[in-house]
What we know:
Blueprint (H helix, E strand, L loop, with lengths): L1 H33 L6 H15 L2 E5 L8 E4 L6 H6 L5 E5 L8 H7 L3 E3 L6 H13 L4 E3 L20 H6 L3 E10 L2 E2 L11 H10 L4 E6 L11 H20 L24
Parallel strand pairs: 1-8, 2-5, 2-6, 3-4, 3-5
Antiparallel strand pairs: 6-7, 6-8
Helix pairs in contact: 1-2, 2-4
Amino acid sequence: xxxxxxxxxxxxxxxxxxxxxxxxxxxxxxxxxxxxxxxxxxxxxxxxxxxxxxxxxxxxxxxxxxxxxxxxxxxxxxxxxxxxxxxxxxxxxxxxxxxxxxxxxxxxxxxxxxxxxxxxxxxxxxxxxxxxxxxxxxxxxxxxxxxxxxxxxxxxxxxxxxxxxxxxxxxxxxxxxxxxxxxxxxxxxxxxxxxxxxxxxxxxxxxxxxxxxxxxxxxxxxxxxxxxxxxxxxxxxxxxxxxxxxxxxxxxxxxxxxxxxxxxxxxxxxxx
Length: 272
């Protein structure tokens, strides 16, 4: 069954890859003919959605992104965080430079206007300025303040420097909690950690039944120029950690038994 699932999903992923290449070529031709760059954001979001379908991801969303642009701050578990979150709302990412070299996901990240940062390159202040400019221009940006991926069992310490872009632009920060589970327990396959390689990790995910992914949008936090980024980072980490505990506690899971009509809920159907 695992090999049948792998074959089916690899075929679907291959067709998706071919369609993505054709789309890329079409957009480049359109850029040349119109002599201006066409906005890739809606196309990237559509491709993110199809990537999630090809991967067989079972995504459950709780809460909602705001109507206005914000700085998003999320915990980070896997490379698949990018297509998952990118499929839910128009967003620009901040990611490590290596992501831009990954097949399909790297191209999609580039088309979505991802800001790539090299580790140890002393680029944080320049990237903070770039994020602030995107926010002031009406776009939403997502950062992973942990700076790396975790096993999804807890949330690593949040770093505050890049969060200062929200104070620079006068916009709120909306924390997001993302979680991967399998059979009601934290999934040990989905995390992309240590020395995992992209292609082997992708194959392993495609062979298995889909994990359940919960994405929890928390209420935005107001930020002012007086906000201390260290305190903001701690506050966001606490909120995201509490969200992870709520998800692992199955707070958002649907009951196995369908609801029936009672005096307290007369609008529900009678039991059969």
